[in-house]
Amino acid sequence: MASLCFPFPSLLLLFLLSPSFAVAQTTNPNITLGKSLTAHSGDSFWSSASGDFAFGFRQALGGDYLLAIWFNKIDDKTVVWSANRDKLAPEGSTVVLTKSGQLVLNDPAGKQIWASTFTATNQSVSFAVLLDNGNFILAANDSEIVWQSFDYPTDTILPSQILNKGKKLVASYSETNYSSGRFEFSMQTDGNLVLYTRNFPSDVLSTDYWSPNTQSFGFQVVFNLSGSIVLIAENKTILNNLSSNNPTAQTFYQRAILEHDGVFRHYIYPRSGTGRNSSWPKAWSVSKFIPSNICLAISEGSDSGACGFNSYCRLGDDQKPFCTCPDGYVLLDPNDVTKSCKPNFVPQSCAYPEIDNFDFVSMDNTDWPQSDYGHYLPVNEDWCRNECLKDCFCAAAIFRDGNCWKKKFPLSFGKMDYSVGGKALIKIRRSNSTLQSQNLDKNCNNKTKIVIGSVLLGSSLFLNILLFLLTLLIGHRFSRRKLKFNGEDPFILGVNLRAFSYEALNKATKGFKEQLGSGAFATVYKGTLDDNNLVAVKKLENIAKGGSGENEFKVEVSAIARSNHKNLVKLVGFCNEGEHRMLVYEFMENGSLADFLFKPSKPTWYTRIQLVLGIARGLSYLHEECSTQIIHCDIKPQNILLDDSYGAKIADFGLAKLLKKDQTRTMTAIRGTKGYVAPEWFRSFPITVKVDVYSFGILLLEIICCRKNFEMETEDEDEMILSDWVYDCMNEKEIEKLVRDDEEARDDMKRVERFVKIGIWCIQEEPSLRPSMKKVVQMLEGAVEVSTPPDPSSFISAIK
C-alpha cells in the first residue's frame, strides 16, 4: 500500500506548495466506480483538473490503441505512461473502474488485456483521479492511495515521482513503437543504479553501460519539483545529481525518459505565460542526458551494441546517436535502422577466393571492437590490407598505430568517433564484379556456353580473321574519337574520371544560369545531371593552351583525381573540349563555411568541433596519405564546403602544389588569400606543407571565436586582429573572453583552451615550429599533450 509521503521534508514542502497538486486534490472531479472509456477514432480520455495531463486511449501506429497518460495541454501530446505497451488494444476496447475498485482493460469481446493489481488491504477503492502531476491514482474514502501509476513506470518519470528499489524504466522499441525495447534503467534492490542493455527480444539483462560513481549504495531516485533528479541514500543524503540546475516544475513541464536509443534524457518545455520561459521555443529541449556518448558507452556484451550487427553508431549534431550501414551493406529491414545490416554483395568464397574481385572501403575513426580473431603488430597498412584480402574469413580489418586487427562476421559494437582513431578497412566486392559468384552452378553453365561458342567460332578460319579485322577497325575509330573529344591531351587521358561534353554541361546548368560563386580564373554554376544528381560546375574562363588557367585546370584535376577522403570534395568529372575547361563537383547544399560561420546565429560549439576535426583530417590526408603529397595553398572558410549533414569538405585545389615522394618543399610565386597566407610566402622561402598548417591555424581561431581574422569595426581596438587578441587572452589567462557569448563553449573550457593553444602553435611565423597536420589531429583529439606556445613572432624577432 502506498501513501502520499516523501523521503525528506524539503521534497514534501515543494510538493505541497505545488499549485497543480492543490488543484488536483480540491477541484478535480473524481472518477466514480463504474465509469468507463471506449477506444475509438480520436483520443478518448479523462483529464486532470488543470488539463495538463490526460488518461485514456491514444491511437498508435498501425491503428490499435494504447491505454496511456500524456501531456495534453501542449502541441506535442507526449506519452509518459502506458498500461499495455506490449499488447495494444483493438478499436472498441474499454477501460472501466469496476464496482470492486479495479481498473480493467478489456477487448471488444470482453476478454481482459490488462488490470491494476494491488496487495490485499482493509481499504477499498472509492474513486480514481488523475492528478496534475501526471499520477493516476485509485484512492479510498480517506484519500489514501491504494494503487498509483507512479509505482509502475514504463520509460518515463515525472516531477514528484520516486523510483524505489526494485523499480525500473524500460525503453520503448522505437519512437513510434511503444513496446518494450533494448535498454533498461534499474534502481536495483542492492542499491545500485544501472543502465543495462537487454537481450532483446527477451527481457534478460545483458551488460551494464553506465552507473554513477558513488561510495554508498542508493535508496531512491527522486525527481523533485525544483527540477533536479537525484540519487539518495537511505539516510536521505544525496549521492549523485543525475540532473540539476534546471528551472522549476512550476515554470516548465518536465519529464525524464529512457529513450529507445538507450540514453536517459531530462526534457523541459515552457509552460504558457510570461517571464523567463516566454522566450523559450515551444518544444521539448534536452536539459541533461546520460551517458554522454552512447556509441562509446556500450562496448561489450552478448548483443550487437548500440546499433545492430554490421552497423555502426555515431553522434549527430544534436548529440543523438544514429545507426548506419557501411558502404556495401544495406539494412535487413529498411524500416528499422536499429536492426542489423547485411552485405549488398556476395561475400568472398573460401572455395574460390577471387582476391582480384575484392577491395576495401576506408572509414576513419571507426571500429567494431568485439569481432577480433587476429591481432598483428607492428605492421603497416598495406600489410594489413593484404592479410585481410587473402583471408576469406576476414570481413574487415582495423589499422591503428601499427596494429592490425582482423574482424569476422558479424561485426558488432560498431562505433565512429574521433576518439577511436585509426581506420576501418571494410572488404567489399568490386562494383564490376558484383554479379560474379552469385551462383556457382549458373557460372558453370555460362562457362560451358562460352566454351561451346568459342569452339563453333573457331571452326571457321575465315570468320576468325573477319572478327579480328573488325575488332581492329572499331578500336582504331574509338581511339581517334577519344583523342578528339579529350583535346588529344595525354594528361587528361591518364585520369580515371567521367568526361562531359560542353553540350551536356550547358544543358545541365541551363546555359550556365545559376551562379554559385566566382574567382580570378573561374565561375561556379549549379547544375543537374540527367540522373537528377545536383552538381557544381566550375567553368574556367579565358584559358589559352599552356597558360596559367590551363595549368590550374590540370593541377586541380590531377590533385583531386589522386585523392579519396570523406573531408575532400569529390570530383565527378571534367570537360576538356576545344577551349572549354570545366570541372564537375558533387554539389554541397549547405554552401561554404564562410556563409555558415560568419552570421548572427552562431553554429553550436559541438558542430564547430566536428568542423575543425574534419578540416584537420582532410589536410592530414593531403599532406601524408596521398601517393603524391599535396599542398593546398589556399585554405580559408570560402574553400571549406558543407555537405547535407554539415560535414566539412575541402574544396578548390586550383592553387595546389604537388610534391614528389622525395620532395619536401618547392619554390613558387605567392598564392593564397590575404589573412591566411603564411609569412614565408613574402620572404621567398621554400614552400612546404607548413603553409597549409598556418592557414588552418587562422581558420581554427576563426571557428573558435565565430569571427573573421580581421575586423575593423570592433569596440576594443585590441580585438581588431584576431590572432593577436587570441594570444593576448591566452597569455593573460583570459581565454573565456573569446567565447563570452557562447554558453555551450564556456561549459567546455578545457577543450577551448586546448584548441586555442593548437591554433597559436599553427600560426608560428617560423615554419619549423608549426606541428604537422597529423600531429594537429592528434592534439585536437586529445591524444597528444599540448604545451603552451610562444608568441608567434618571437622566433623571427630573435633572429633579427
From TrEMBL:
InterPro entries: Bulb-type_lectin_dom (IPR001480), Bulb-type_lectin_dom_sf (IPR036426), G-type_lectin_kinases/EP1-like (IPR051343), Kinase-like_dom_sf (IPR011009), Prot_kinase_dom (IPR000719), Protein_kinase_ATP_BS (IPR017441), Ser/Thr_kinase_AS (IPR008271), SRK-like_kinase (IPR024171)
TM segment ranges: 450-474
Reactions it catalyzes: L-threonyl-[protein] + ATP = O-phospho-L-threonyl-[protein] + ADP + H(+); L-seryl-[protein] + ATP = O-phospho-L-seryl-[protein] + ADP + H(+)
Chief subcellular location: membrane
Stored Pfam families: B_lectin (PF01453), Pkinase (PF00069)
Protein residues bound to ATP: K539
Domain Bulb-type lectin: 30-151
Entry membrane topology: Single-pass type I membrane protein
Domain of life from the UniProt record: Eukaryota
Xref: PROSITE patterns: BULB_LECTIN, PROTEIN_KINASE_ATP, PROTEIN_KINASE_DOM, PROTEIN_KINASE_ST
Signal peptide, first to last residue: 1-24
Keyword Transmembrane: yes
Ranges where the Protein kinase domain occurs: 510-796
A GO cellular-component term linked to this record: membrane
Compartment(s): Membrane
Class of enzymatic activity (EC top level): transferase
UniProt-recorded Gene Ontology molecular function terms: ATP binding; carbohydrate binding; protein serine kinase activity; protein serine/threonine kinase activity
Keywords in alphabetical order: ATP-binding, Disulfide bond, EGF-like domain, Glycoprotein, Kinase, Lectin, Membrane, Nucleotide-binding, Receptor, Serine/threonine-protein kinase, Signal, Transferase, Transmembrane, Transmembrane helix
PANTHER family on file: G-TYPE LECTIN S-RECEPTOR-LIKE SERINE/THREONINE-PROTEIN KINASE SD2-5, G-TYPE LECTIN S-RECEPTOR-LIKE SERINE_THREONINE-PROTEIN KINASE LECRK1
Protein name per Swiss-Prot or TrEMBL: Receptor-like serine/threonine-protein kinase
